[in-house]
Amino acid sequence: MIEKMTLQPGQIVKNLIPSEAVTINRVQNLGASVSIAFTGVNTKRANTKVISSSEFDALEILTDEGIFNFKGDPVKFALFAEAERINSAYQFDPLFAVNCSIVDPLPHQVEAVYKFLLPLPKIRFLLADDTGAGKTIMAGLLIKELLMRGLVERILIVTPGGLTKQWQEDELGVKFNIPFTLVNRSLFSSDPNVFHTAPRIVTSIDFISREDVLNVASNSHWDLIVFDEAHKLSAYDYGNNSICRNATKQHKFSQNNVNTFCCLPLHRTEGE
């Protein structure tokens, strides 16, 4: 039998489970083993575990519930406090995404994002500024703000084929420090579930319009979809025929599987 039974209900110990410290609810001696009922400090999940004598000796009492002993690692505490400060910074900084990104936005870009886009309860917007007006910067600011506020997690950006790398590396990676996965045919062939597993994706409009790809992507829920050069989604007239090349499938996809939707058209051509 285990002779020393120093654990008491209400004490907080570590090394019982690997993921977190736990609060002891009940301790029962079972001969050569000990049954411990506990509740996770962070997850608040209750469970029971039977441990051996050696595992019992490895337990370390941190403190009693409701008592602070100030024996924690000060460096880790400082990191935690800084992480919490950053996580809540948007509540005190009205231009938080601007101040934590490598961009120098113009007044009309700030006005579009912070006066018109963010206050909306459900964003479905068409950014139709002229070429060179910085629609990509507006989209990046919007994405950064929504991510920091915890309003979006899964993001899909659909661009023309020649701009996917620019969006992934230059616009989002360098300027806004937001990592995105560039999905093309080779990656999709090696990992057909990438549209379900990757939280943030950049892909081309020609690739996602393929039947096999669109079927997979449309079965995944997205918090935000951004279409660059969205005029390519529109129907157009060719002679006496009205052609809806990409409009029907991709428009239905964007309407049915997304909470937030933003389009960046380049221009309007004759017949659209």
Could you explain how this protein is built, in words?
The chain is an alpha/beta fold and 272 residues long. It folds into 2 domains: 11-64, SH3 type barrels, CATH 2.30.30; 85-264, 3-Layer(aba) Sandwich (Rossmann fold), CATH 3.40.50.10810. Helices cover 33% and strands 25% of the residues. The protein has 11 helices and 13 strands. A 6-stranded parallel β-sheet has the order 6-13-10-7-9-8, with helices on both faces. Strands 4-3-2-1-5 form a 5-stranded antiparallel β-sheet. A hairpin with a 2-residue loop joins strand 11 (236-238) and strand 12. Helix 4 packs across helix 5.
How many H/I helical runs?
Answer: 11
Low-confidence stretches: 268-272
Structural class: alpha/beta
Radius of gyration: 26 Å
Give the total of domains: 2
CATH fold category name of the largest domain: Rossmann fold
Mean pLDDT: 83
Written as H for each helix and E for each strand, in order along the chain, the element string is: EEEEHEHHHEHEHEHHEHHEEEHE
Q: What spatial order of strands do you see in the largest sheet?
A: 6-13-10-7-9-8
- The global form is elongated
CATH class of the largest domain: Alpha Beta
CATH architecture of the largest domain: 3-Layer(aba) Sandwich
Task: Characterize the largest beta sheet: strand count, sense, and whether it forms a barrel.
Answer: 6 strands, parallel
Strand content: 25-35%
Let me know the number of strands: 13
CATH homologous superfamily of the largest domain - what is it? Tandem AAA-ATPase domain
Helix coverage percent of residues?
25-40%
End-to-end C-alpha gap: 83 Å
